[in-house]
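Lay summary. Proteins are chains of building blocks that fold into shapes, and those shapes determine what they do. In this project we predict the shape from the chain. Here is one chain we studied, written as its sequence of building blocks.
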Amino acid sequence: MKITLSSELPHYPVFKEGIRRAPDRGFRLTPAQAEIALKNALRYIPCELHKTLAPEFLEELWTRGRIYGYRYRPEGDLKAKPIDDYKGNCVEGKAFQVMIDNNL
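And here is the predicted shape, written in a compact code that computers can read:
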């Protein structure tokens, strides 16, 4: 199974003030660990977007201690939808998406 994202780069979101975000976890990685973290974050993203996203992901890693990939966060509230509204090839895969949305 191969998972890839679209080669169309989503816009970087504007964060609303007053919403609690994940705390800064501090940057505690060695250079080798940071490189592995970047490679792991970029592995599902088309190669033509790596030059744009690698510096952005590294900045997230330095400032927040984790790579969140904010460009790929869905806009609006994350609430479960009817199972037929999800994209997928099998009902089991769609069910996983429902469970994920129910817990976020």
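What the prediction tells us: The mean pLDDT is 89.
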